[in-house]
Design brief:
Blueprint lengths: L2 E6 L3 H12 L4 E7 L5 H7 L4 E4 L10 H11 L4 E6 L4 H10 L3 E4 L8 H9 L4 E2 L1 H9 L8 H11 L4 H8 L3 H15 L4 H10 L8 H28 L4 H26 L1
Parallel strand pairs: 1-2, 1-3, 3-4, 4-5, 5-6
Helix pairs in contact: 1-11, 4-6, 8-9, 9-10, 11-12
């Protein structure tokens, strides 16, 4: 019987490449895909997948993946969650595995070689880590002084979200967020938000400050690699490329290359 999966990633081209890689396997069926984390609870309730393939970041959304994994598995303990992301910081890897994720694939680890095996493994209840994730787990710091919730609040703050957005993302009140900040300040011996973020990063309670920038730069690069695999796959199956297909893929490659160029400009100013 085919493994039923849901896909959650906010980059349409990554979803397209991922769809191609997975649908090659006769034992995998894609139930749905989305780029909006707010849609996930409804989609999971309406069409529960056996395996959810989940990215960690969604542009503009206040989303804490570790909290989402914990809460989703508490409601749907039979479901498996496979993280599929450009984030390779050991703190992220350790955090998500600790939250209950059944696997972690870093997109730079040539995911075309791993995704079907990863889906099959976690569907059967076996953990799956790509090579970078294995290395990250060996480097992760496990001794923590902050709670899961306190780290979630810090991660959202580091992404630029205020207390109101944080409260909405975590399903708690504004006052509860303020109380958590008071506890964070006390535990880290600081008295303002920026100092708390710096201290948490130094203690490896938070991923590196450049993790988001690395993610933004790597996403279009992974898309370029995925598009190259699409071209290679079509050539292998068809022996040639139709003009319309070639033109479409070339346009997408140019667009992603231009996006990389803009991002490099932004981070080197």
């Amino acid at each position: 019987m085919a493994i039923q999966i849901g896909l959650a990633d906010d980059h349409p081209l990554i979803l397209r490449v991922l769809r191609q890689e997975l649908t090659r396997a006769l034992d995998v069926t894609i139930l749905w895909e989305t780029g909006e984390p707010a849609m996930l609870p409804r989609l999971i309730q309406q069409s529960p997948p056996e395996v959810l393939v989940l990215d960690l970041a969604f542009a503009g959304a206040a989303f804490d993946p570790a909290s989402f994994v914990r809460e989703t598995l508490a409601r749907s303990p039979q479901m498996k969650i496979l993280i599929f992301t450009a984030y390779d910081d050991p703190v992220w890897i350790d955090e998500l595995i600790d939250a209950g994720a059944h696997g972690y694939v870093v997109k730079s680890d040539d995911f075309s070689l791993h995704m079907v095996d990863a889906v099959r493994a976690v569907a059967q209840g076996r953990p799956f880590l790509s090579q970078t994730a294995i290395l990250g787990m060996t480097q992760a710091r496990r001794q923590r002084r902050l709670t899961d919730r306190e780290r979630a609040i810090l991660r959202l703050a580091a992404s630029g979200h205020d207390n109101q957005a944080t409260a909405a993302a975590l399903g708690i009140s504004h006052g509860t967020v303020r109380n958590h900040w008071s506890n964070i300040y006390a535990k880290l011996n600081v008295d303002h938000r920026e100092a708390a973020l710096r201290a948490a990063e130094a203690l490896r309670e938070l991923p590196r400050a450049d993790a988001h920038v690395r993610h933004e730069l790597r996403t279009p690069l992974h898309t370029l690699m995925g598009l190259a695999r699409l071209l290679a796959g079509r050539l292998e199956r068809q022996g040639r490329l139709e003009r319309a297909d070639a033109e479409e893929l070339i346009e997408q490659i140019i667009a992603e290359a231009e996006r990389v160029d803009r991002l490099i400009d932004e981070v080197t100013r």
